[in-house]
Specification:
binds uridine-5'-diphosphate
Length: 250
């Protein structure tokens, strides 16, 4: 698969359809330990730039999709355009539809207590043949006995797909640390706040905002406390112009 380096993060140059086809191939093949999908936006790339120890973690995924208009803009500024924004939540839902159709089971890990169950109920309503093998909230100690008991619960449920929704970069760290302990699972998706959306607690932006590349603005209006995190976006774009003038390095 073609990858394009955007400020040090190795994005796969795929459309949503191509990413969904990769997921279908992954689920159809035998696997020793799960393959992984990370969905960084410009905030995460900026995090890597400011704290470079995160590069190895973010680049460790098998499929890295550009989940943000800022990354797409940066790819154009740098003269190596990515095909399109691929929203993690949309790939996550395509995977649910495929699982329902082909009989793969899924497990939802993350969000506040009760949310994963609510998301499972809503998604089973939408995809009646979907098998949700289990759910667990995301507020547990990510090491020691508590972590072991979460891993045991997941192994006992034996899902094909594990949705890990613990926020960035906790979810990526958790997946990297526990990948081998999850033998039997075929795919781990790091999907941030997706369970909150599927549970119906958080709304995605209206389609027009998404089309105009203004989903970030809608989110900011709904959740003004995100302003600090979102200031990473202009910083990232200014830095990208500077990198372009310097000759492309991060
Ligand atoms: N979360 C969690 N465990 C934690 C901290 C956060 O499960 O210890 C959940 C939180 O409830 C929310 C998700 O992680 O459902 C992060 O959502 P956000 O929209 O902030 O996603 P991000 O932008 O970080 O991907």
């Amino acid at each position: 698969m073609e990858t394009i380096n955007i400020r040090g993060v190795r994005f796969c140059n795929v459309t949503l359809d191509e990413a969904a086809a990769w997921v279908a191939d992954t689920l159809a093949a035998p696997a020793k330990c799960p393959r992984t999908v990370f969905t960084p936006n410009s905030e995460i790339v900026q995090l890597c730039i400011e704290a470079p120890e995160h590069y190895a973690l973010i680049n460790s995924a098998d499929l890295i999709i550009p989940d943000g208009i800022g990354v797409i803009k940066a790819s154009r500024i740098l003269g190596t355009p990515l095909k399109e924004k691929v929203a993690g939540i949309e790939l996550g839902e395509r995977t649910l539809a495929l699982a329902a159709e082909q009989g793969y089971s899924v497990y939802f890990l993350g969000a506040k207590p009760g949310v994963a169950e609510q998301a499972a109920a809503k998604m089973k309503e939408k995809y009646p043949t979907l098998t949700v093998a289990g759910t667990h909230d995301g507020y547990f100690k990510k090491e020691g006995n508590e972590n072991e008991s979460v891993l045991s619960a997941i192994r006992a449920a034996a899902p094909d797909v594990l949705y890990v929704c613990l926020g960035v970069p906790a979810q990526e760290k958790w997946i990297a640390a526990n990948r081998e302990a999850l033998a039997g699972v075929k795919l781990c998706l790091a999907l941030g706040g997706s369970l909150d959306v599927w549970a119906g607690n958080v709304k995605r932006a209206p389609k027009l905002f998404i089309k105009l590349g203004l989903e970030w603005f809608y989110r900011l209006c709904k959740e003004p406390r995100r302003i600090g995190r979102m200031m990473k976006l202009p910083k990232f774009l200014f830095g990208t112009y500077a990198a372009k003038w310097r000759g492309g390095e991060a």
